[in-house]
Amino acid sequence: DGEVHINELKNGNTEMFWNPTGEVRRQRLKRHIVLFEEQTDFESERLWQHVTSAINKGDQHKATQEKFVLEEEQRNAARERRENGTEWKPLLFRHDATTNEWHYKYEDLRPWDPLNDIAQFEKNGILQTMERHLSTRMSNHKTTCINNQITRHKRSVKDCRRRKTSDQPSNHSQNTESSCSTPESVQELSDDDGKYLGLESLCAQCGKEINHLKEIHSAVLSLQRAQQDIHR
């Protein structure tokens, strides 16, 4: 979003190649970074801080030295892992043996949906997308889970009644009836009926999506606090 010039070395002339308008500058993507004091030792800004400092000072010799130190430490660490038989397992990347390339585990290659996607954020190194309709999908999925459990319960009631009807009256039939006793009406379920059927314990996916929503909410609050600090 800055000016770009072309310098002609033969005659020393300088020509404007790109000069963005104010509208282009306003559309620049906002950059969010982790505070330096909160970064771990292997995050790029902290890991390469001495190399960066030397480059900013124009000290190419110092930058080269610092880069060599980092690379030598990495070689030594790799050598120790080989000697100890320790396998290196990256947290965020996977290796494609076919192309011999590394790929980000959580990459999302779908096109950005401006009507549904709100923002992307990072948590524990994992890039995630906040969506408008996530809660709606979760609600629909929860309804589907409940309906499936109700259907299974209705089926079990019918099977139980069928068994009672087919059995001859006997002492054993009384035991069968007591073992199959269920509420006669399951057409409309109240909250208490749902608890009776065990519907309050939703499937694992519902629980995961609820926790996912909580994480997104927490991340959004953190971003909002950071933006407020920046404005102040």
TrEMBL record:
What top-level branch of life does the organism fall under? Eukaryota
Name the residue ranges with Basic residues bias.
151-164
What's a single GO MF annotation on this record? lipid binding
One Pfam family from the UniProt entry?
Answer: Oxysterol_BP
Polar residues bias locations: 167-188
In this chain, the stretch annotated as Disordered covers: 147-191
Identification of the protein by name: OSBL5 protein
Organism of provenance: Corythaeola cristata (Great blue turaco)
Gene that encodes the chain? Osbpl5
